[in-house]
Amino acid sequence: DVNGQAQTALTLGSIGTVEVTASVSGLTPVVFSETSIVGDPNHLVLVSGDSQSETVATTLVAPIVVRAEDNYNNPVQGVTLHFVPDASGGTLGSVDNTDVVTNSSGEAQVDFTLGTLAGISAQWITVTVISYPAVAALDVYENPTSDVPFSVTADSGNNQLAAYGQTLVNPLVALVEDQYGNPVTGYTVSWSSPDGTLDNPTSVTDSGGLASNTATMGSVAPNPNQEFDAEANGVIFTFDATATGHWIEWIDPWKVWPGYPDPFAADPSLIDVEVSIHGGGFVSGANVIWDVGGADESIAPDSVIATEVVVQISADHFITLGSFPITVENPGPDPCASFNFEVDYMIPDTGQIQCFDASDNNVLCSTIVPGDPMYGQDGHYEQSTYGQHFYTDNTDITVTDEITGLMWQQCALGLSGEGCATGSPMEIDGFWAIGVIDPIYNPGGDDYCGDLTLAGYNDWRLPSYHELAGIADYGRIGPAIDTIAFPGTPANSSFWTSSWVAFAVGNSAWTMSSNVGSLNYGGLGSNASYVRCVRGASYFEHPVRFVVQGTPGQEIVLDMDTGLTWQKEYSAGHNWSSALSYCAGLTYGGADDWRLPNVNELRGLVNTVVHDPCSDFPEMPGVIFWSSTSYASSISTTAWYVQYNIGYVFGTNSSSDKSNAHFVRCVR
Of 361, 632, 629, nearest to 478 (Cα)? Predict the structure, then answer.
């Protein structure tokens, strides 16, 4: 300008010294040195530590870090940040609030101990800059999670009313909270009931700490006050419900085989079967409703008292396999919860019709009457629950057992032709019988039954322990089998089963004596036995076989495979006649028609897959239990027993002597 001066404006950049050089050609340059410094705090920036999910009342794993910046986002050192928790009770270290001076990075940090409130963004810290009120406050939010369950209460569904066996109208909803009253989310609640049933054994709490389940009133009565428990972390809440109306407790019989009681009857509709429906609250004028695929049939009963309805149901109802709901409808109409009547294949009778007196002599069963110490033998019940074997000769060298539904090869291996009169029975090693490859005995992996084509079928297999024992006839010996259905059966050895011995899988399998029907085991290579093949579905197939009902000390066990009702308790130290008397005189679980089980019923509790004990029956000890079946002889000093450590079934050894003391469990 006129003064010889030139000027310009400089806008400072980042923090530090900036040099500006002014120069004119031929003259010495002039250097200007300027320094930029941080401005006052303009805003706060969250560096880290937010949105942490830790349990309430605990210190966060990571500290909360905040940075102060000026208008150009430069960190501001040396200013004081003020940290204040919200009102939920959290603390900074050991104090409620604190002041921290920013470091050279403009950052300040604090450790935060959460308060007692849980939830997304449920707790926070507010950060401000002391002496700079114009700087906007910063809120740092955290996501505290609830503590472990401390209380379980009813949100809804408590104190409902419903008929016996009916589902409650409203679900049971439990509220799970921690010690601070926070709902506990995502926790698995366990449900149980000593009285009724629940749709699910567990349910998971939602975001509100709620877990729900659907409950059905128990039909075992009289038990109007029923309980359903919700448990979390050992804390239990009991929902109460009150049962009303009438109910069915049990039915006798509640399971029969197809074609019961005579699968060869020309007109089953002319055969009436008496069914007793036990329960309570029945009144005069009640009808029995038999449900066939939703088509209800009303049947007038013979008699009705408050605790029992007796009705005649024609045998044509028992032709088709299935579950058929039965209910009792009091006048109104007022039906109660139904009870399923089962038509299914079952274990057959033993075939024994003999009875034996106190001197072990073979006598007519009719000469031993109720009240006699020897009453309750197998022969007394030979026409009761099961009846005898029913075989149909298919005229193609096969027979069908109408009680189990299984089709059998009529002739043992080596025999053929009418009456199995051609050839000689052949004993083979277990590797060939079961179809297991062995380099010495069965290198080609031959499988006699699996390779068999007979009567147009190629799905033959070796029978299991239970299937083979099911055709034993304990009313005869030498051989112990129906020789009309199975002619030519040899009596001098045993027959292989497909069932491994639980403690020797791959080496030993169960066999049945063809002479007397005992069950023992043999090594696959060291023993040779006969073979008879079978086809068809096994009659032991329920996924949940044993169902416990009743009150402790009087509990009963329903066997869903056989239709039998068992005493859950057992009694020790009985000789055979004492065992008969114990069961015949037993009043237990609301019933007084208990008896000592026959050998097939007792053997039916064995599970060959396990041992010590070899049974899935609740709390079964691995000991010897008496059956009501005597060894078939003119004079019988022994009776059949089942040993539940391994699964032996014997009736002719020293332990079978009727004077021995063994265990007893009764059946009805």
Answer: 632
Decide: helix, strand or coil at residue 490. coil
Dihedral angle, C-alpha 316, 317, 320, 326, nearest 10 °? 180
User: CA nearest 324: which of 368, 388, 380, 260?
Assistant: 260
CB atoms within 10 A of CB 389: 21
642 token code pair: 């089942």
Residues 315 and 492: their CA atoms lie apart, in Å, by 41
Q: Which helix (H) or strand (E) holds 241?
A: strand 235-244
CA distances to 17, 346, 467, 507 from 500, in Å: 92, 23, 14, 8
**Ramachandran region, residue 661 (left: φ > 0; alpha: ψ -120 to 50; beta: rest):** beta
Q: What is the mean pLDDT of residues 575-593?
A: 94
What are the pLDDT digits (tens) for 405-454? 899 999 999 999 999 999 999 999 999 999 988 888 888 889 999 999 99
Token pair for residue 157? 């569904």
Strand partners, 342: 255, 323
DSSP string, 627-661: EEEEPSSSB--BEEEEETTT--EESSSGGGBTTS-
Rounded Cα distance between 428 and 419, Å, is: 22
Q: Are 432 and 445 in contact (CB under 8 A)?
A: no
Q: Would you state the structure tokens that stand for residue 317, as one six-digit string?
A: 């109802």
Residue 576 is classified by DSSP as H
